[in-house]
Q: What sequence folds into this?
């Protein structure tokens, strides 16, 4: 064995930045994970000798391809698609597909890297992957989206499989897109298996997959609060986003007695001081999912609410914050504002919504901070359950799935406490806990395989 034991975090990060120039989101995600891991493995030479972090931070493969399609006016359009297969040490690659104009290799590499640790935390046998395209579904007709999805799958199909790599939804990819992609996969391969998750209930989807990420992020907050003998009931909550994750976070928070006063999209946020009810939320679901409208409409319909164009909701005073839109949406100054206004808990429904300096501010203030890979793992957790149902050719009942989701979130919380609690038991650093708990299983599987 060589002498790789002396590598420091700085040296490791310097190398990573040099090998991946300009991929700032990827650097950020690797740094967030590596900080606690390098501390944890300082007296564990095997992980150094076998270059475990270096290997997890080098995707198994990055597939990039052209996606050509025809719009409704007969113009030929060209986009770029990717699938990043980061690590399959503990199970088939698994992770969502994102369609958004901002998508690039750096963003997908950060997401695939994060997914590896998140999936490990769920306790289910899933490796980490992510994919997507720089395609903007906004303003496109259903048939344009269909043609794009078909063209995307015409290349992607050769890289995936129910025991190889199982994609799902993410930003810009919901039930409609999964349907079009699954239809094309089935057509090309003549197979009907569980190769995608988030499928419609008629063709192999699982109950509560739609709800799972938002519900799960709320359960994670509930678990963090319960650990401090506190609860969501009666607390003012600020939520960002108005897509899949945000909608079901708002639903569960409201059911648990929290008062949600904001939702947002990329154009601005609405502030409803009276708080959401199920009725108002159902209106938002129809606006977003069926009419594909903008959140601004909410303030026209519900007169007590105000729309704030071009702004994020973090200035609205709250006790709990649920970022559920996208990466880097809580900057350092937003974190400071939240703290100043009395925020005591953050549960990240989105992936990497808080910048590193913001995370440090939350940890320094010792508030409850649930990092994405723990807090939003309920979505991929139920995807794992969808895979199990598909391979066994059965469907579990809703009650059973609800119980399994709450158990998954409880177990993730317990793993974070196990690895993240300070010696005096006065504080849980959930960032440290989640990263180490996610790392150990993947790392030990890699050690078992030797050098591959
Ligand atoms: P959706 O596409 O359903 O909704 C995304 C929401 O975020 C929309 O309100 C969208 O606004 C807003 N948004 C997207 N990009 C930006 C941006 N650049 N700036 C500001 N707002 C933006 O996606 P999801 O709800 O599925 O995903 C939200 C987050 O949750 C993402 O970080 C995703 O990775 C993460 N996640 C999703 C899971 C899932 O199961 N779906 C699982 C785990 C994590 P607009 O309509 O204007 O684009
Ligand atoms: O970020 C995520 O965990 C997801 N987009 C869901 C992945 C999945 O495979 O369900």
A:
């Amino acid at each position: 064995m060589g002498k790789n034991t002396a590598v420091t975090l700085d040296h490791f990060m310097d190398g990573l930045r040099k090998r991946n120039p300009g991929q700032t989101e990827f650097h950020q995600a690797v740094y967030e994970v590596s900080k606690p891991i390098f501390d944890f493995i300082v007296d564990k030479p095997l992980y150094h000798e076998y270059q475990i972090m270096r290997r997890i931070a080098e995707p198994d493969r990055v597939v990039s391809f052209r996606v050509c399609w025809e719009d409704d006016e007969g113009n030929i359009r060209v986009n770029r698609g990717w699938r990043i297969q980061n690590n399959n040490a503990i199970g088939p690659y698994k992770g969502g597909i994102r369609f958004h104009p901002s998508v690039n290799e750096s963003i997908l590499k950060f997401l695939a890297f994060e997914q590896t640790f998140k999936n490990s935390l769920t306790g289910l046998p899933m490796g980490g992957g992510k994919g997507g395209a720089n395609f903007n579904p906004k303003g496109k007709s259903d048939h344009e989206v269909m043609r794009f999805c078909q063209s995307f799958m015409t290349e992607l199909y050769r890289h995936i499989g129910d025991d190889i790599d199982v994609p799902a939804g993410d930003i810009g990819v919901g039930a409609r897109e999964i349907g079009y992609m699954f239809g094309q996969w089935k057509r090309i391969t003549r197979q009907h298996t569980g190769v995608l998750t988030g499928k419609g209930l008629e063709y192999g989807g699982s109950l509560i997959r739609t709800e799972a990420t938002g519900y799960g992020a709320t359960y994670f907050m509930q678990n963090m609060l319960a650990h401090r003998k506190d609860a969501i009931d009666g607390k003012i909550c600020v939520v960002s986003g108005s897509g899949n994750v945000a909608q079901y976070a708002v639903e569960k928070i409201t059911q648990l007695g929290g008062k949600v006063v904001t939702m947002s999209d990329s154009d601005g946020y609405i502030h409803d001081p009276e708080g959401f009810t199920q009725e108002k939320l159902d209106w938002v679901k129809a606006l977003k999912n069926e009419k594909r409208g903008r959140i601004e409409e909410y303030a026209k319909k519900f007169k007590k609410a105000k729309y704030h164009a071009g702004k994020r909701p973090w200035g609205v005073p709250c006790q709990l914050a649920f970022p559920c839109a996208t990466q880097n949406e809580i900057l350092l100054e937003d974190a400071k504002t939240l703290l100043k206004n009395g925020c005591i808990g953050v549960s990240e429904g989105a992936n990497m919504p808080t910048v590193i300096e913001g995370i440090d501010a939350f940890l320094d203030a010792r508030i409850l901070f649930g990092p994405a890979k723990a807090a939003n793992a309920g979505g991929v957790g139920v995807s794992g359950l969808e895979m199990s149902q598909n391979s066994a050719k059965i469907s579990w009942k809703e009650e059973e799935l609800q119980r399994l989701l709450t158990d998954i979130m409880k177990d993730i919380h317990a793993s974070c406490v196990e690895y993240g609690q300070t010696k005096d038991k006065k504080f849980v650093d959930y960032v440290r806990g989640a990263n180490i708990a996610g790392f150990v299983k993947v790392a030990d599987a890699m050690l078992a395989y030797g050098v591959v």
Q: What stands out?
A: The first helix runs from residue 9 to 19. The mean pLDDT is 97. The pocket of NDP (ligand 1) is lined by residues 100, 102, 169-172, 174, 213, 241-246, 265-267, 324-326, 349-351, 376, 379 (CB under 6 Å). The two ends are 15 Å apart (CA to CA).
